[in-house]
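FAQ

Q: What does a record look like?
A: Structure on top, sequence underneath. For example:
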């Protein structure tokens, strides 16, 4: 069972949300104090209220209202005096409304028919209405069969309650949150074990051993109390539930060099512990088939590398269970499906329409040339950008159109050493990033460093690898004929030489030898000038500029960029 949409009204600061479609991974974004947390909390509270129906049938709504006082994670599920907006708390008729729409699997549709004795087309819209006095459940189905389903609201409520689960992780994640999750997991697993004869025999043996100790304690208490209560006839000490008592308490010890209780670890470790436990729950599959994981600010307390790893973990969870988060970090925004991001502003919420809108609410400021960019191609220098953009335009009509529309932009690293910073910068501006770099030591070292700290992934980097060369540069990809005349005319160099054509070392080293052999200086200034002239020559005829031996690399780069752009 999946939650496909949700709407909320009159909950804390939220007066009303639009009906929000929920995907596998849904992101709530918005400025501080605008209602993101309250929408997430409203979703969690509503689902917990639904789960309270997983109990024996109720005679009155008031009984259910009292059940709401059952505490979950240290908080009442719903209290009108706290959860209604302040201006409504004195009004007896004021109420909070939670609207849910669930999508059932084929098996669940069959189970629904068996348990509820009604047919369903796979969609089940329901509403919970909470006030100071009552909690009411109703089926919101329209059209044929609606009246029949409404008459079976109690059975339907219990059907839903047995198939949903919500786990919420607040922005302040403490050891107690993690231990509570572990305790729940321990209780559930041991509860299964309790059905075995061996376990029950062991508990009975414990009771037998405890009996004389408890009898002695009873006698001691009686002899003390009878002095104050002359009519006292007996005192009985009862261990009411030895089964559950054996699974109530547990500790979590982390040994990362020194065994330490989780509660004494730092905020970051405690945060990751809570997330990893949820990851484990999600991987259990069908046992939590209707689980929704709600996480407030998953980036809180974490190092940038841990944030990247956590993003991957949450995406992995979302393949099995639904994930809903609030965030201030652009790293968690779903760029490929913009409408799965929910913009929360002025205590109202609606699906995002554009990446630009998300940038605005997150306070991301971008330059004019990136205002429409979905993807940024990073190259090392301005001369690389000058040549590679025309080459890509000539090789792909899709990329040509993307450059024209601004959906794809090229930017310079101005040195391989800036890779990590620049990649993080553009990702923070809600752009997809791909890097095309030389294949020399400086470039590969920079790439490995960025990957190791979580700034980039292997799939986000391509190198200018020329077949048969240990190290190569982007200029090695160009046909010598494309720029030969420029070198001869502008620098009075005999070119190309037999040594240059052997390609035993990268382009700049071979060009240096060609210049020196012709009696010309070679330094950083000359190298920059030559590279600029070569790039200009390539840009004039990009269709014929690429060496056929390097054609596969360019073709693959085009395919990668097209795929990431969604073409």
């Amino acid at each position: 069972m999946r939650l496909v949409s949700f709407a909320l009204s009159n909950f804390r600061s939220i007066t009303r949300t639009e009906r929000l479609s929920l995907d596998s991974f849904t992101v709530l974004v918005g400025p501080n104090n605008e209602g993101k947390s309250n929408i997430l909390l409203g979703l969690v509270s509503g689902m917990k209220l639904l789960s309270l129906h997983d109990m024996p049938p109720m005679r009155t709504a008031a009984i259910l209202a009292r059940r709401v006082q059952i505490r979950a994670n240290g908080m009442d599920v719903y209290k009108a005096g706290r959860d209604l907006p302040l201006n409504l708390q004195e009004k007896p008729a004021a109420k909070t409304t939670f609207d849910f729409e669930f999508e059932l699997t084929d098996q669940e549709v069959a189970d629904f028919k068996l348990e509820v004795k009604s047919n369903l087309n796979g969609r089940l819209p329901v509403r919970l209405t909470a006030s100071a006095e009552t909690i009411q459940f109703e089926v919101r189905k329209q059209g044929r069969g609606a009246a029949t389903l409404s008459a079976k609201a109690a059975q339907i409520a219990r059907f839903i309650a047995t198939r949903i689960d919500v786990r919420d992780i607040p922005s302040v994640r403490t050891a107690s949150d993690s231990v509570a999750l572990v305790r729940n997991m321990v209780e559930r697993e041991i509860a299964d074990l309790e059905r075995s004869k061996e376990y029950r025999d062991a508990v009975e043996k414990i009771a037998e051993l405890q009996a004389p100790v408890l009898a002695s304690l009873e006698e001691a208490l009686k002899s003390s109390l009878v002095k104050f209560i002359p009519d006292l006839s007996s005192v009985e000490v009862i261990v009411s539930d030895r089964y559950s008592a054996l699974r109530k308490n547990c500790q979590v010890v982390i040994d990362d060099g020194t065994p330490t209780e989780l509660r004494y670890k730092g905020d970051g470790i405690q945060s990751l512990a809570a997330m990893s436990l949820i990851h484990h729950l999600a991987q259990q599959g069908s046992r939590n088939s209707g689980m929704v994981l709600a996480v407030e600010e998953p980036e809180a307390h974490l190092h940038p590398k841990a944030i990247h790893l956590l993003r991957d973990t949450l995406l992995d969870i979302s393949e099995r269970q639904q994930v809903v988060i609030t965030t201030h970090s652009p790293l968690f925004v779903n760029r490929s499906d913009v409408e799965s991001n929910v913009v929360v502003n002025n205590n109202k919420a609606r699906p995002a329409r554009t990446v630009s809108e998300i940038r605005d609410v997150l306070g991301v400021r971008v330059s004019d040339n990136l205002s429409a960019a979905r993807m940024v191609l990073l190259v090392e220098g301005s001369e690389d950008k000058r040549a590679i953009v025309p080459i890509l335009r000539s090789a792909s009509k899709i990329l040509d159109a993307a450059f024209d529309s601004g959906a794809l932009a090229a930017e310079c690293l101005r040195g391989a050493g800036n890779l990590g910073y620049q990649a993080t910068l553009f990702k923070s501006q809600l752009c997809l990033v791909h890097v095309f770099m030389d294949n020399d030591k400086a470039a590969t070292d920079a790439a490995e460093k960025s990957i190791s700290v979580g700034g980039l992934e292997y799939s986000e980097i391509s190198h200018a690898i020329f077949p048969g060369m240990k190290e190569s540069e982007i200029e090695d990809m160009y046909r010598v004929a494309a720029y030969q005349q420029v070198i001869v005319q502008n620098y009075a160099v005999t070119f190309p030489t037999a040594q240059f054509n052997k390609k035993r070392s990268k382009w700049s080293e071979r060009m240096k030898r060609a210049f020196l052999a012709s009696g010309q200086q070679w330094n950083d200034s000359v190298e920059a000038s030559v590279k600029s002239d070569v790039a200009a020559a390539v840009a004039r005829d990009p269709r014929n500029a690429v060496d056929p031996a390097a054609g596969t690399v360019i073709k693959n780069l085009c395919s990668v960029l097209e795929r990431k752009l969604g073409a």
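Q: Is there anything notable about this one?
A: Residues 365-567 form one domain.
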